[in-house]
DNA sequence: TTAGGTTTAG
């Protein structure tokens, strides 16, 4: 019997046992018979105090009464439970509970003649592979909100993790973990938890996780309430992500967890989504900067002792640190880990030196395990014998800011993602990258006397390339200026100047139906529309339909806003937040932004009497990632919101903005760069418009306004195309296609030009 | 007992 799980179910008549398991009647129990695929079911009618056997094993005895044949003499039986199971059962079993056991040993009962019970008793233990299921009639736990805690009480509570220190070796005899919780009462509680076994402390992996503590003692300390472990303390930890499976993390094999508690977790998740900032200092090695603290999720490749107060961990996360990194010198014999792997990954692993209180835990880590190392410090330093500075990674002593090491289990979603990424890493590639970007390469290259400067390179090669029509010959600008429109030309010219100089002003919204262009609305207008629509209370009659689940709550601030979130259901085995579309009523701009970080799509809506509807089209009708999608006021004819359910019904809805717009009757406005390039070639000059969604700059116009990295990239590209402060002779050449077209109005006629099928050269961006 | 969040200084 491989199952060792003990669980409480409520109002569940069928035990979650495999189909091949059969219920055994007490009267058929006999010593020596095969009971491998049988289970016994009964009611707990008596239990004895938990005791220890001479060898220290926990021992717990109960009496079970069979449900059938109540008059039979052998209707009750002694169950002897050993070890961890004994301890767990003693904690939660109550008289009257329904008890199911499988994987038991049937032994002749030495006390049958005295107690008049069954001639055999059952022996049950984890070691024997027993499984126990308990259906409890009893304990209904009461959970205290954090703003109602009183000094000297022992309580049960739920909270969202706002801060935590992963279990570390305390100066006493136990492991310690410090956890700060918050809940919708907006009160914080810092708990100090001790246990000799770190596995018995809450398995918290990140801020935002949700915990349930049972029997935590509340004390006043420095004028504030504080939680501390008391006898019988138990915890469950849950992923705090809305939509993630509600699976408790716990070391206990026995816990109560019912539908009601399931609901509590879901509600806390939704609350936390808009109230807890989880943007922690996590980083990939490729993104580290000198002089910062960050959390790293990684795999342990090697470890070595260094000296009494420090210990070396060699880890990787599949990405490459952009700076030269330090190597901590250790004796080859002291380095643990697969030699071949250590060599293969030598350009991707980094050395992390851990100090003091972290050494003991670091020593115990298994090679290959997945770790989250919290608050690693990066420091730039140059050794005496080197002229380059290298990045050092330190995990300093102490536990400030949650500094420490956590081991993540393989079923952790972040680990799964990391594993998939590590599998995709091409080691050959990383080794080439290393040789190309290494300090050594630079020093060799600089010895080349004919090493070309950027300027020379750009004077020789065009900085833009054509994506089509390669057969066309170049036409001089003078010829173009003297020709009639419309025509298409290939040109070679220099970019003398461009407008707008402030690049963010080049982004507009374009309607491809009516061909109108408009400015991108600023956040303020959106904010006002949200404030106006927050006045309309969510209509509860529109909640929880066939195609969405709704959650509603009232904010704790003085405004007491009602917020409703409707999660659109779709037909997936497991609905993940990153694939989920939600609609929100009554949220603020900030709350909506926070939701977009976690969910695939957010649609702001308001209630009418009989349906949800989109807000004014001056507001975005959809937010996805960093992008706000708008509809054309002229061309849109909004349709009922329930049309979304047709997309939700797809196997794996991709939630494409174009598709969402279509079913909602919205004519989607597209983000576009509009710029005017003044091009010259020595024979003439033309002003050509650039009208580009993404192709020219290889930057989506939709993302530039919210992404400073892309803004920098675009500015750098323009500086390459048109380096500021250069003479005309020193400007690089552009190869472009332009087309001429006629623009006529009542007063005059003119010829305009537009750039097309042209992109910035790959090595420029 | 231990720690009681708010960065080491190697």
Automatic annotation (TrEMBL):
Superkingdom of the organism of origin: Eukaryota
Principal localisation: nucleus
Localization per record: Chromosome, Telomere; Nucleus
Keywords tagged on the record: Chromosome, DNA-binding, Nucleus, Telomere
Keyword hit for Nucleus: yes
One GO MF term: telomerase inhibitor activity
Pfam families assigned to the protein according to its UniProt record, in alphabetical order: POT1, POT1_C_insert, POT1PC
A single GO BP: telomere capping
Stated family: Belongs to the telombin family.
Name of the protein described by the UniProt record: Protection of telomeres protein 1
């Amino acid at each position: 019997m491989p199952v060792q799980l003990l669980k409480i179910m409520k109002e569940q008549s069928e035990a979650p046992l495999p189909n091949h398991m059969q219920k055994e009647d007490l009267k058929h129990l006999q010593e020596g018979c095969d009971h491998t695929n049988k289970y016994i079911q009964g009611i707990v009618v008596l239990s004895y105090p938990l005791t220890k056997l001479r060898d220290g094993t926990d021992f717990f005895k109960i009496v079970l009464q069979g449900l059938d044949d109540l008059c039979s003499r052998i209707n009750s039986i002694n169950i002897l439970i050993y070890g961890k199971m004994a301890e767990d059962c003693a904690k939660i079993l109550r008289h009257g509970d329904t008890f199911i056991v499988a994987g038991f040993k049937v032994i002749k009962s030495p006390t049958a003649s005295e107690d008049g019970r069954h001639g055999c008793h059952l022996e049950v233990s984890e070691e024997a592979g027993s499984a126990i299921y308990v259906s409890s009639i009893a304990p209904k736990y009461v959970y205290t909100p954090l703003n109602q805690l009183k000094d000297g009480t022992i309580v049960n509570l739920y909270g969202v993790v706002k801060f935590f220190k992963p279990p570390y070796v305390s100066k006493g005899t136990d492991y310690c973990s410090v956890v700060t919780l918050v809940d919708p009462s907006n009160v914080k509680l810092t708990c100090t938890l001790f246990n000799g076994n770190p596995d018995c402390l809450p398995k918290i992996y990140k801020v935002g996780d949700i915990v349930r503590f049972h029997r935590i003692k509340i004390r006043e300390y420095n004028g504030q309430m504080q939680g501390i472990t008391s006898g019988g303390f138990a915890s469950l930890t849950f992923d705090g992500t809305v939509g993630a499976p509600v699976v408790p993390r716990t070391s206990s094999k026995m816990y109560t967890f019912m539908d009601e508690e399931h609901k509590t977790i879901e509600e806390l998740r939704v609350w936390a989504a808009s109230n807890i900032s989880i943007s922690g200092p996590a980083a990939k090695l490729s993104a580290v900067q000198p002089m910062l603290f960050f959390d790293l999720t990684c795999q342990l490749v090697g470890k070595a002792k260094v000296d009494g107060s420090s210990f070396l961990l060699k880890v990787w996360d599949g990405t490459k640190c952009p700076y030269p990194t330090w190597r901590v010198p250790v004796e080859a014999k002291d380095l643990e880990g697969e030699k071949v792997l250590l060599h293969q990954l030598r350009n991707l692993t980094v050395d992390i030196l851990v100090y003091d209180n972290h050494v003991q835990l670091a020593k115990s880590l298994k090679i290959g395990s997945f770790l989250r190392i919290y608050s690693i410090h990066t420091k730039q330093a140059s050794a005496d014998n080197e002229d380059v500075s290298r990045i050092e990674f330190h995990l300093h002593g102490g536990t400030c800011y949650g500094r420490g090491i956590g081991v993540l289990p393989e079923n952790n979603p972040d680990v799964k993602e990391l594993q998939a990424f590590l599998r995709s890493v091409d080691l050959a590639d990383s080794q080439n990258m290393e040789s190309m970007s290494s300090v050594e390469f630079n020093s060799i290259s600089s010895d080349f006397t004919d090493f070309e400067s950027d300027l020379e390179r750009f004077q020789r090669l065009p900085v833009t390339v054509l994506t089509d029509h390669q057969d066309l010959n170049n036409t001089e600008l003078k010829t173009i200026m003297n020709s009639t429109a419309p025509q298409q030309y290939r040109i070679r010219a220099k970019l003398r100047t461009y407008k707008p100089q402030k690049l963010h002003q080049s982004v507009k919204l374009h309607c491809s139906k009516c061909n109108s262009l408009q400015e991108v609305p600023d956040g303020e207008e959106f904010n006002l529309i949200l404030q106006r629509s927050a006045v309309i209370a969510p209509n509860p009659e529109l909640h929880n339909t066939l195609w969405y689940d709704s959650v509603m709550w009232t904010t704790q601030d003085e405004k007491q806003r009602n917020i409703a979130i409707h999660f659109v259901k779709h037909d997936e085995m497991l609905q993940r937040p990153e694939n989920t579309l939600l609609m929100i009523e009554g949220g603020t701009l900030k709350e909506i932004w926070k939701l977009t970080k976690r969910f695939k799509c957010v649609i702001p809506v308001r209630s009418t009497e009989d349906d949800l509807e989109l807000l004014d089209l001056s507001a975005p009708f959809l937010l996805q990632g960093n992008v706000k999608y708008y509809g054309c006021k002229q061309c849109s004819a909004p349709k009922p919101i329930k049309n979304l359910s047709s997309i939700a019904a797809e196997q794996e809805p991709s939630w494409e903005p174009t598709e969402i717009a279509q079913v909602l009757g919205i004519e989607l406005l597209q983000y576009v760069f509009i710029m005017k390039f003044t091009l010259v070639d020595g024979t003439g000059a033309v002003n050509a418009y650039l009208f580009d969604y993404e192709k020219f700059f290889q930057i989506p116009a939709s993302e530039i306004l919210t992404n400073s990295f892309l803004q920098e990239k675009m500015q750098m590209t323009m500086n390459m195309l048109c380096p500021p402060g250069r003479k005309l002779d020193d400007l690089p050449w552009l190869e472009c296609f332009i087309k001429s077209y006629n623009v006529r109005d009542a007063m005059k006629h003119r010829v305009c030009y537009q750039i097309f099928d042209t992109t910035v050269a790959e090595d420029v961006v």
